Amino acid sequence: MEQEKDLEVTAKKKNKWLKVSVITLVVLLVVLLGASYGLASYVVTGHPQTLDDAMKWQQDRYDTTFFTEGDVSDYIVKGYEDYELHTYLLKNENGDGKYVIISHGYTDNHIGSLKYARIYYNLGFNCIIYDLRGHGENEKHITTYSYLESKDLVRVVEDTRTRYDDIKLLGLHGESLGAATTAASMQYKPEVDFAVCDCGFADMFNLLSGSGYGAPKAVVKLADIGLHLFYGLSLDDMRPVDALKDNTVPMMFIHGEWDSLISYDNSERMAEATKGESEVHIVPKAEHAESVFTDYDSYVEYVKEFVEKVQDNEN
Question: Which CATH class is domain 48-203+238-314?
Answer without folding.
Answer: alpha beta
